[in-house]
Design goal:
Elements (H helix, E strand, L loop, with lengths): L2 H6 L20 E6 L2 H11 L8 E6 L2 H8 L7 E5 L4 H14 L5 E6 L4 H9 L4 E4 L4 H12 L9 E7 L6 H14 L5 E5 L7 H4 L8 H6 L6 H7 L1 E2 L4 E4 L17 H10 L2 E5 L6 H9 L2 E6 L3 H17 L7 E7 L9 H8 L5 E4 L2 H10 L3 H4 L4 H14 L13 H11 L1
Parallel strand pairs: 1-2, 1-3, 3-4, 4-5, 6-10, 6-11, 7-9, 7-10, 11-12, 12-13
Antiparallel strand pairs: 8-9
Bound molecules: adenosine-5'-triphosphate and magnesium ion (MG).
The site of magnesium ion has 5 residues, from helix 7.
Length: 423
Protein backbone atom coordinates (compact mmCIF):
# COMPACT_ATOMS: atom_id res chain seq x y z
CA UNK A 1 0.00 0.00 0.00
CA UNK A 2 1.38 3.42 -0.90
CA UNK A 3 1.81 6.13 1.68
CA UNK A 4 -0.19 8.78 -0.11
CA UNK A 5 -3.16 6.40 -0.37
CA UNK A 6 -2.97 5.68 3.32
CA UNK A 7 -2.79 9.42 4.04
CA UNK A 8 -5.86 10.05 1.93
CA UNK A 9 -7.55 7.33 3.96
CA UNK A 10 -8.85 5.43 0.96
CA UNK A 11 -8.21 1.94 -0.28
CA UNK A 12 -5.78 1.43 -3.13
CA UNK A 13 -7.29 1.01 -6.60
CA UNK A 14 -7.87 -2.63 -7.29
CA UNK A 15 -6.76 -4.01 -10.60
CA UNK A 16 -9.48 -6.21 -12.06
CA UNK A 17 -7.07 -7.81 -14.49
CA UNK A 18 -4.66 -9.66 -12.25
CA UNK A 19 -2.99 -12.68 -13.73
CA UNK A 20 -4.06 -14.77 -10.74
CA UNK A 21 -7.39 -14.98 -12.59
CA UNK A 22 -5.75 -17.09 -15.27
CA UNK A 23 -5.93 -20.20 -13.08
CA UNK A 24 -8.78 -22.38 -11.95
CA UNK A 25 -9.91 -22.27 -8.32
CA UNK A 26 -9.87 -25.62 -6.49
CA UNK A 27 -12.95 -27.48 -5.25
CA UNK A 28 -14.07 -25.19 -2.43
CA UNK A 29 -17.57 -24.26 -1.37
CA UNK A 30 -18.45 -20.59 -1.70
CA UNK A 31 -21.58 -18.88 -0.44
CA UNK A 32 -22.34 -15.27 -1.28
CA UNK A 33 -24.84 -12.83 0.24
CA UNK A 34 -25.49 -9.66 -1.75
CA UNK A 35 -27.47 -6.55 -1.03
CA UNK A 36 -27.14 -4.62 -4.29
CA UNK A 37 -28.48 -6.11 -7.54
CA UNK A 38 -25.32 -4.98 -9.40
CA UNK A 39 -23.14 -6.87 -6.94
CA UNK A 40 -25.34 -9.92 -7.35
CA UNK A 41 -24.97 -9.73 -11.13
CA UNK A 42 -21.19 -9.48 -10.93
CA UNK A 43 -21.14 -12.31 -8.42
CA UNK A 44 -23.34 -14.46 -10.62
CA UNK A 45 -21.04 -13.87 -13.57
CA UNK A 46 -18.03 -14.79 -11.46
CA UNK A 47 -19.79 -17.92 -10.18
CA UNK A 48 -20.59 -19.03 -13.73
CA UNK A 49 -17.02 -18.45 -14.89
CA UNK A 50 -14.95 -21.39 -16.10
CA UNK A 51 -12.28 -20.65 -13.50
CA UNK A 52 -14.80 -21.40 -10.77
CA UNK A 53 -16.13 -24.51 -12.50
CA UNK A 54 -14.77 -26.83 -9.81
CA UNK A 55 -16.20 -24.87 -6.89
CA UNK A 56 -19.65 -25.21 -5.32
CA UNK A 57 -20.93 -21.70 -5.66
CA UNK A 58 -24.14 -20.39 -4.10
CA UNK A 59 -25.56 -16.92 -4.20
CA UNK A 60 -28.46 -15.35 -2.38
CA UNK A 61 -29.72 -11.87 -1.70
CA UNK A 62 -29.32 -10.72 1.88
CA UNK A 63 -27.26 -8.79 4.39
CA UNK A 64 -24.63 -9.86 6.90
CA UNK A 65 -27.43 -10.27 9.41
CA UNK A 66 -29.23 -12.66 7.08
CA UNK A 67 -25.98 -14.58 6.73
CA UNK A 68 -25.63 -14.77 10.52
CA UNK A 69 -29.19 -16.10 10.82
CA UNK A 70 -28.63 -18.53 7.98
CA UNK A 71 -25.49 -20.03 9.50
CA UNK A 72 -26.62 -19.92 13.14
CA UNK A 73 -27.34 -23.62 12.96
CA UNK A 74 -25.78 -24.80 9.75
CA UNK A 75 -22.14 -25.27 8.79
CA UNK A 76 -20.39 -22.45 6.99
CA UNK A 77 -18.76 -22.96 3.56
CA UNK A 78 -15.02 -22.67 2.86
CA UNK A 79 -15.51 -19.12 1.69
CA UNK A 80 -18.19 -16.63 2.62
CA UNK A 81 -18.56 -13.47 0.54
CA UNK A 82 -20.88 -10.93 2.10
CA UNK A 83 -21.89 -7.52 0.88
CA UNK A 84 -22.80 -4.82 3.35
CA UNK A 85 -24.03 -1.26 3.01
CA UNK A 86 -23.41 -0.63 6.71
CA UNK A 87 -21.43 2.33 8.04
CA UNK A 88 -18.03 1.32 9.52
CA UNK A 89 -19.15 0.86 13.11
CA UNK A 90 -22.19 -1.24 12.27
CA UNK A 91 -20.17 -3.22 9.82
CA UNK A 92 -17.49 -4.09 12.38
CA UNK A 93 -20.18 -5.10 14.84
CA UNK A 94 -21.95 -7.25 12.26
CA UNK A 95 -18.67 -8.89 11.28
CA UNK A 96 -17.95 -9.88 14.85
CA UNK A 97 -21.45 -11.42 14.96
CA UNK A 98 -20.61 -13.27 11.78
CA UNK A 99 -17.35 -14.53 13.25
CA UNK A 100 -19.34 -16.22 16.02
CA UNK A 101 -21.27 -18.41 13.61
CA UNK A 102 -18.37 -19.18 11.27
CA UNK A 103 -16.63 -22.55 11.49
CA UNK A 104 -12.91 -22.36 11.93
CA UNK A 105 -11.32 -22.45 8.49
CA UNK A 106 -14.04 -20.44 6.81
CA UNK A 107 -12.59 -17.44 5.00
CA UNK A 108 -14.55 -14.23 4.64
CA UNK A 109 -14.51 -11.55 1.97
CA UNK A 110 -16.53 -8.41 2.68
CA UNK A 111 -17.80 -6.18 -0.10
CA UNK A 112 -18.56 -2.81 1.42
CA UNK A 113 -19.74 0.59 0.32
CA UNK A 114 -17.38 2.66 2.43
CA UNK A 115 -13.94 3.50 1.11
CA UNK A 116 -11.98 3.87 4.33
CA UNK A 117 -8.51 2.57 5.10
CA UNK A 118 -9.15 2.47 8.85
CA UNK A 119 -12.16 0.24 8.33
CA UNK A 120 -10.11 -1.94 6.00
CA UNK A 121 -7.40 -2.41 8.62
CA UNK A 122 -9.89 -3.15 11.38
CA UNK A 123 -11.61 -5.75 9.26
CA UNK A 124 -8.36 -7.42 8.28
CA UNK A 125 -7.27 -7.38 11.94
CA UNK A 126 -10.52 -9.08 12.89
CA UNK A 127 -9.70 -11.97 10.55
CA UNK A 128 -11.49 -10.96 7.37
CA UNK A 129 -9.45 -12.13 4.36
CA UNK A 130 -10.27 -9.19 2.15
CA UNK A 131 -12.36 -6.03 2.14
CA UNK A 132 -13.29 -4.47 -1.20
CA UNK A 133 -15.46 -1.55 -2.10
CA UNK A 134 -18.41 -1.91 -4.49
CA UNK A 135 -18.88 -1.78 -7.44
CA UNK A 136 -17.04 -4.99 -8.08
CA UNK A 137 -16.28 -6.71 -11.39
CA UNK A 138 -16.48 -10.50 -11.99
CA UNK A 139 -12.77 -10.88 -12.77
CA UNK A 140 -11.84 -8.83 -9.72
CA UNK A 141 -13.84 -11.24 -7.56
CA UNK A 142 -12.20 -14.23 -9.17
CA UNK A 143 -8.82 -12.61 -8.52
CA UNK A 144 -9.70 -12.16 -4.83
CA UNK A 145 -10.76 -15.77 -4.51
CA UNK A 146 -7.60 -16.86 -6.34
CA UNK A 147 -5.50 -14.82 -3.91
CA UNK A 148 -6.94 -16.85 -1.05
CA UNK A 149 -6.86 -20.32 -2.58
CA UNK A 150 -4.01 -20.32 -5.04
CA UNK A 151 -0.47 -20.56 -3.85
CA UNK A 152 1.49 -17.71 -5.42
CA UNK A 153 4.63 -19.84 -5.35
CA UNK A 154 3.03 -22.77 -7.13
CA UNK A 155 4.27 -23.18 -10.69
CA UNK A 156 2.30 -21.15 -13.20
CA UNK A 157 -0.19 -23.32 -15.05
CA UNK A 158 0.26 -23.69 -18.76
CA UNK A 159 -2.26 -22.19 -21.14
CA UNK A 160 -4.67 -24.38 -23.02
CA UNK A 161 -5.95 -23.77 -26.53
CA UNK A 162 -8.79 -25.97 -27.78
CA UNK A 163 -9.36 -26.43 -31.52
CA UNK A 164 -12.73 -27.58 -32.83
CA UNK A 165 -14.35 -27.82 -36.26
CA UNK A 166 -17.77 -26.36 -37.04
CA UNK A 167 -18.35 -29.49 -39.12
CA UNK A 168 -16.53 -32.77 -39.53
CA UNK A 169 -13.52 -32.77 -41.84
CA UNK A 170 -13.10 -29.01 -42.14
CA UNK A 171 -9.44 -29.09 -41.16
CA UNK A 172 -9.57 -28.30 -37.44
CA UNK A 173 -6.96 -30.93 -36.60
CA UNK A 174 -4.78 -29.72 -39.45
CA UNK A 175 -4.85 -26.20 -38.00
CA UNK A 176 -4.16 -27.47 -34.46
CA UNK A 177 -1.21 -29.59 -35.60
CA UNK A 178 0.36 -26.88 -37.75
CA UNK A 179 0.06 -24.32 -34.95
CA UNK A 180 1.62 -26.77 -32.46
CA UNK A 181 4.48 -27.45 -34.85
CA UNK A 182 5.26 -23.75 -35.36
CA UNK A 183 5.19 -23.04 -31.61
CA UNK A 184 7.57 -25.91 -30.96
CA UNK A 185 9.89 -25.75 -33.97
CA UNK A 186 10.06 -22.06 -34.70
CA UNK A 187 9.31 -20.45 -31.37
CA UNK A 188 11.13 -23.22 -29.48
CA UNK A 189 8.43 -23.39 -26.81
CA UNK A 190 7.34 -26.63 -25.19
CA UNK A 191 3.94 -27.80 -26.37
CA UNK A 192 1.88 -30.86 -25.62
CA UNK A 193 -0.66 -31.74 -28.28
CA UNK A 194 -3.50 -33.85 -26.87
CA UNK A 195 -5.60 -35.66 -29.46
CA UNK A 196 -9.05 -36.18 -27.94
CA UNK A 197 -10.38 -37.94 -31.01
CA UNK A 198 -9.69 -41.41 -29.65
CA UNK A 199 -11.20 -43.54 -32.43
CA UNK A 200 -10.27 -41.40 -35.44
CA UNK A 201 -7.55 -38.95 -34.34
CA UNK A 202 -4.83 -38.16 -36.86
CA UNK A 203 -2.14 -36.42 -34.80
CA UNK A 204 0.00 -39.58 -34.80
CA UNK A 205 -0.32 -39.94 -38.57
CA UNK A 206 0.20 -36.26 -39.29
CA UNK A 207 3.44 -36.22 -37.29
CA UNK A 208 4.57 -39.49 -38.77
CA UNK A 209 4.68 -41.17 -35.37
CA UNK A 210 3.72 -44.62 -34.32
CA UNK A 211 2.89 -43.70 -30.77
CA UNK A 212 1.82 -45.79 -27.81
CA UNK A 213 -1.75 -45.64 -26.59
CA UNK A 214 -1.19 -42.23 -25.04
CA UNK A 215 -4.47 -40.64 -24.18
CA UNK A 216 -6.49 -43.83 -23.92
CA UNK A 217 -4.20 -45.21 -21.22
CA UNK A 218 -4.35 -41.92 -19.36
CA UNK A 219 -8.14 -41.87 -19.19
CA UNK A 220 -8.42 -45.58 -18.48
CA UNK A 221 -6.84 -45.13 -15.06
CA UNK A 222 -6.74 -41.39 -14.38
CA UNK A 223 -5.97 -41.94 -10.68
CA UNK A 224 -2.67 -43.53 -11.67
CA UNK A 225 -1.55 -40.75 -13.95
CA UNK A 226 1.28 -38.84 -12.35
CA UNK A 227 4.18 -37.00 -13.91
CA UNK A 228 6.21 -40.17 -14.39
CA UNK A 229 3.39 -42.00 -16.13
CA UNK A 230 2.55 -38.95 -18.20
CA UNK A 231 6.13 -38.82 -19.39
CA UNK A 232 5.78 -42.40 -20.58
CA UNK A 233 2.47 -41.75 -22.34
CA UNK A 234 3.73 -38.76 -24.27
CA UNK A 235 5.40 -39.35 -27.60
CA UNK A 236 8.25 -36.95 -28.25
CA UNK A 237 7.85 -35.67 -31.78
CA UNK A 238 10.75 -33.25 -31.46
CA UNK A 239 12.68 -31.33 -28.82
CA UNK A 240 9.72 -29.16 -27.91
CA UNK A 241 6.67 -31.06 -29.15
CA UNK A 242 5.12 -33.98 -27.31
CA UNK A 243 2.06 -35.82 -28.39
CA UNK A 244 -0.62 -37.39 -26.24
CA UNK A 245 -1.77 -39.53 -29.09
CA UNK A 246 -5.12 -41.11 -29.81
CA UNK A 247 -5.03 -44.84 -30.53
CA UNK A 248 -7.10 -44.44 -33.71
CA UNK A 249 -8.83 -47.75 -33.09
CA UNK A 250 -12.43 -48.75 -32.57
CA UNK A 251 -12.11 -51.02 -29.56
CA UNK A 252 -13.74 -48.45 -27.26
CA UNK A 253 -16.66 -46.12 -27.79
CA UNK A 254 -16.07 -42.44 -27.15
CA UNK A 255 -18.95 -42.00 -24.70
CA UNK A 256 -16.88 -40.86 -21.74
CA UNK A 257 -17.99 -39.06 -18.60
CA UNK A 258 -17.81 -35.31 -18.40
CA UNK A 259 -14.70 -35.31 -16.20
CA UNK A 260 -12.81 -38.11 -17.92
CA UNK A 261 -10.01 -35.93 -19.29
CA UNK A 262 -9.86 -33.41 -16.47
CA UNK A 263 -7.04 -34.84 -14.34
CA UNK A 264 -4.82 -35.63 -17.30
CA UNK A 265 -5.24 -32.22 -18.90
CA UNK A 266 -4.69 -30.50 -15.53
CA UNK A 267 -1.51 -32.47 -15.01
CA UNK A 268 -0.19 -31.55 -18.45
CA UNK A 269 -0.83 -27.88 -17.71
CA UNK A 270 1.20 -28.17 -14.53
CA UNK A 271 4.21 -29.38 -16.47
CA UNK A 272 3.97 -27.63 -19.85
CA UNK A 273 3.53 -23.98 -20.76
CA UNK A 274 1.19 -24.72 -23.63
CA UNK A 275 -1.41 -27.41 -24.15
CA UNK A 276 -3.06 -27.70 -27.55
CA UNK A 277 -6.23 -29.78 -27.45
CA UNK A 278 -7.50 -31.29 -30.67
CA UNK A 279 -11.22 -31.64 -29.91
CA UNK A 280 -13.19 -33.80 -32.35
CA UNK A 281 -16.34 -32.52 -34.01
CA UNK A 282 -18.71 -33.93 -31.41
CA UNK A 283 -21.15 -32.53 -28.90
CA UNK A 284 -20.74 -34.55 -25.73
CA UNK A 285 -20.50 -33.56 -22.10
CA UNK A 286 -16.69 -33.93 -22.18
CA UNK A 287 -16.13 -32.06 -25.46
CA UNK A 288 -18.39 -29.26 -24.27
CA UNK A 289 -16.59 -29.04 -20.94
CA UNK A 290 -13.20 -29.00 -22.67
CA UNK A 291 -14.23 -26.09 -24.89
CA UNK A 292 -15.79 -24.21 -22.01
CA UNK A 293 -12.74 -24.50 -19.80
CA UNK A 294 -9.94 -23.88 -22.28
CA UNK A 295 -8.11 -20.56 -22.07
CA UNK A 296 -8.72 -20.02 -25.77
CA UNK A 297 -10.98 -21.69 -28.34
CA UNK A 298 -10.30 -21.78 -32.08
CA UNK A 299 -13.23 -22.71 -34.31
CA UNK A 300 -12.40 -23.82 -37.84
CA UNK A 301 -15.19 -23.59 -40.40
CA UNK A 302 -15.55 -24.03 -44.15
CA UNK A 303 -17.52 -21.28 -45.92
CA UNK A 304 -20.88 -23.02 -46.37
CA UNK A 305 -24.28 -22.81 -44.76
CA UNK A 306 -24.06 -25.80 -42.42
CA UNK A 307 -20.70 -24.58 -41.13
CA UNK A 308 -22.15 -21.12 -40.62
CA UNK A 309 -25.09 -22.42 -38.62
CA UNK A 310 -22.91 -24.67 -36.49
CA UNK A 311 -20.22 -22.03 -35.98
CA UNK A 312 -22.86 -19.60 -34.90
CA UNK A 313 -24.30 -22.04 -32.38
CA UNK A 314 -20.82 -22.76 -31.06
CA UNK A 315 -19.96 -19.07 -30.78
CA UNK A 316 -23.25 -18.35 -29.01
CA UNK A 317 -22.90 -21.12 -26.48
CA UNK A 318 -19.24 -20.30 -25.80
CA UNK A 319 -19.91 -16.59 -25.42
CA UNK A 320 -22.68 -17.46 -23.02
CA UNK A 321 -20.71 -19.85 -20.89
CA UNK A 322 -17.50 -17.77 -21.02
CA UNK A 323 -18.83 -14.31 -20.36
CA UNK A 324 -15.60 -13.01 -18.86
CA UNK A 325 -13.51 -14.20 -21.82
CA UNK A 326 -12.92 -12.90 -25.30
CA UNK A 327 -15.03 -14.63 -27.98
CA UNK A 328 -13.58 -17.66 -29.76
CA UNK A 329 -11.14 -17.25 -32.64
CA UNK A 330 -12.46 -18.07 -36.09
CA UNK A 331 -10.49 -19.72 -38.89
CA UNK A 332 -12.13 -20.12 -42.29
CA UNK A 333 -10.57 -23.05 -44.07
CA UNK A 334 -10.88 -24.49 -47.56
CA UNK A 335 -11.94 -21.22 -49.13
CA UNK A 336 -12.15 -21.12 -52.92
CA UNK A 337 -12.90 -24.72 -53.87
CA UNK A 338 -13.21 -24.55 -57.69
CA UNK A 339 -16.81 -24.43 -58.92
CA UNK A 340 -18.21 -24.66 -55.39
CA UNK A 341 -20.66 -21.92 -54.48
CA UNK A 342 -19.49 -20.37 -51.20
CA UNK A 343 -20.60 -17.88 -48.61
CA UNK A 344 -18.18 -14.97 -48.90
CA UNK A 345 -15.84 -14.29 -45.98
CA UNK A 346 -17.56 -10.94 -45.49
CA UNK A 347 -21.05 -12.46 -45.27
CA UNK A 348 -19.82 -15.31 -43.10
CA UNK A 349 -18.17 -13.04 -40.59
CA UNK A 350 -21.07 -10.56 -40.58
CA UNK A 351 -23.54 -13.35 -39.88
CA UNK A 352 -21.32 -14.64 -37.11
CA UNK A 353 -20.36 -11.32 -35.61
CA UNK A 354 -16.71 -12.38 -35.54
CA UNK A 355 -14.01 -11.51 -38.05
CA UNK A 356 -11.94 -14.51 -39.07
CA UNK A 357 -8.41 -14.38 -37.77
CA UNK A 358 -7.26 -16.46 -40.69
CA UNK A 359 -8.66 -17.52 -44.07
CA UNK A 360 -6.92 -20.55 -45.59
CA UNK A 361 -7.39 -21.31 -49.29
CA UNK A 362 -8.39 -24.75 -50.48
CA UNK A 363 -5.17 -26.35 -51.69
CA UNK A 364 -5.59 -30.11 -52.09
CA UNK A 365 -2.13 -30.58 -53.62
CA UNK A 366 -0.33 -28.96 -50.69
CA UNK A 367 -2.50 -30.30 -47.86
CA UNK A 368 -2.84 -33.75 -49.44
CA UNK A 369 0.93 -34.09 -49.83
CA UNK A 370 1.54 -32.91 -46.28
CA UNK A 371 -1.01 -35.37 -44.89
CA UNK A 372 0.35 -38.32 -46.89
CA UNK A 373 3.96 -37.54 -45.98
CA UNK A 374 3.23 -36.95 -42.31
CA UNK A 375 4.61 -33.43 -42.66
CA UNK A 376 3.50 -29.96 -41.67
CA UNK A 377 2.77 -27.26 -44.26
CA UNK A 378 5.70 -25.21 -43.03
CA UNK A 379 8.08 -28.11 -43.69
CA UNK A 380 6.70 -28.68 -47.14
CA UNK A 381 6.30 -25.15 -48.39
CA UNK A 382 7.28 -22.40 -45.98
CA UNK A 383 6.61 -19.74 -48.65
CA UNK A 384 3.01 -20.80 -49.29
CA UNK A 385 0.06 -18.70 -48.20
CA UNK A 386 -1.26 -21.31 -45.74
CA UNK A 387 2.20 -21.53 -44.09
CA UNK A 388 2.28 -17.76 -43.71
CA UNK A 389 -1.26 -17.86 -42.30
CA UNK A 390 -0.39 -20.53 -39.76
CA UNK A 391 2.60 -18.48 -38.60
CA UNK A 392 0.43 -15.43 -38.16
CA UNK A 393 -2.28 -17.34 -36.29
CA UNK A 394 0.37 -18.85 -34.03
CA UNK A 395 1.82 -15.43 -33.26
CA UNK A 396 -1.62 -14.24 -32.34
CA UNK A 397 -2.37 -17.23 -30.14
CA UNK A 398 0.91 -17.04 -28.27
CA UNK A 399 1.40 -13.32 -28.07
CA UNK A 400 -2.05 -12.05 -27.22
CA UNK A 401 -4.62 -11.22 -29.83
CA UNK A 402 -3.45 -8.83 -32.45
CA UNK A 403 -5.23 -10.03 -35.54
CA UNK A 404 -8.78 -8.99 -34.64
CA UNK A 405 -10.99 -10.12 -31.82
CA UNK A 406 -10.60 -8.58 -28.38
CA UNK A 407 -7.36 -8.53 -26.48
CA UNK A 408 -7.46 -10.75 -23.44
CA UNK A 409 -5.30 -8.49 -21.35
CA UNK A 410 -5.18 -10.46 -18.10
CA UNK A 411 -3.81 -13.49 -19.92
CA UNK A 412 -0.93 -11.56 -21.47
CA UNK A 413 1.30 -11.28 -18.41
CA UNK A 414 0.97 -15.02 -17.93
CA UNK A 415 2.06 -15.75 -21.47
CA UNK A 416 5.07 -13.52 -21.21
CA UNK A 417 5.95 -15.12 -17.89
CA UNK A 418 5.72 -18.56 -19.44
CA UNK A 419 7.60 -17.59 -22.55
CA UNK A 420 10.22 -15.77 -20.55
CA UNK A 421 10.74 -18.82 -18.40
CA UNK A 422 11.27 -21.15 -21.27
CA UNK A 423 12.95 -18.84 -23.75
N1 LIG B 1 -7.05 -25.83 -46.85
C1 LIG B 1 -7.12 -27.10 -47.19
N2 LIG B 1 -7.13 -27.46 -48.49
C2 LIG B 1 -7.21 -28.76 -48.85
N3 LIG B 1 -7.29 -29.77 -47.99
C3 LIG B 1 -7.29 -29.48 -46.69
C4 LIG B 1 -7.20 -28.14 -46.21
N4 LIG B 1 -7.21 -28.16 -44.85
C5 LIG B 1 -7.30 -29.46 -44.48
N5 LIG B 1 -7.34 -30.26 -45.57
C6 LIG B 1 -7.46 -31.72 -45.59
O1 LIG B 1 -8.75 -32.03 -45.16
C7 LIG B 1 -8.77 -33.28 -44.49
C8 LIG B 1 -9.47 -33.15 -43.16
O2 LIG B 1 -8.68 -32.39 -42.28
P1 LIG B 1 -8.68 -32.60 -40.71
O3 LIG B 1 -8.54 -34.02 -40.37
O4 LIG B 1 -7.73 -31.64 -40.17
O5 LIG B 1 -10.16 -32.12 -40.40
P2 LIG B 1 -10.93 -32.16 -39.01
O6 LIG B 1 -11.80 -30.96 -38.99
O7 LIG B 1 -10.00 -32.33 -37.90
O8 LIG B 1 -11.78 -33.46 -39.20
P3 LIG B 1 -12.50 -34.38 -38.10
O9 LIG B 1 -13.91 -33.91 -38.11
O10 LIG B 1 -12.34 -35.77 -38.62
O11 LIG B 1 -11.79 -34.16 -36.81
C9 LIG B 1 -7.32 -33.70 -44.36
O12 LIG B 1 -7.05 -34.65 -45.34
C10 LIG B 1 -6.54 -32.43 -44.62
O13 LIG B 1 -5.29 -32.68 -45.20
MG1 LIG C 1 -9.96 -33.71 -36.30
Amino acid sequence: MQANEAQKGILPEQDPGQDSTARAIPRVSIQAFCEAPETATAMQQAGADRRLAKTHFNLQMGSIRNAIEHFADSPTPNLLIVESRDAPEQLLEAVSGLAEVCDSGTKVIIIGHVNDIGLYRNLIDSGVSEYVVAPIKPLQLIGLIADIYLDPDAPVLGRSIAFVGAKGGVGSSTVAHNVSWIISEQMKQDVVLADMDLPFGTAGLNFNQDPPQGISEAILSPEQVDEVMLERLLTECSDHLSLLAAPGTLDREADFDKDTFEDTLDLIRKTTPLLVIDVPHLWTSWSRKTLREADEVVITAAPDLANLRNARNLVDILKNSRQNDAPPILVINMAGVPKRPEITVKDFSEALGIKPSLVIPFDPQLFGTAANNGQMIEELSAQSKPAEGFRELTRMLTGGREMGGKSNSFIKPLISKLMGKKG
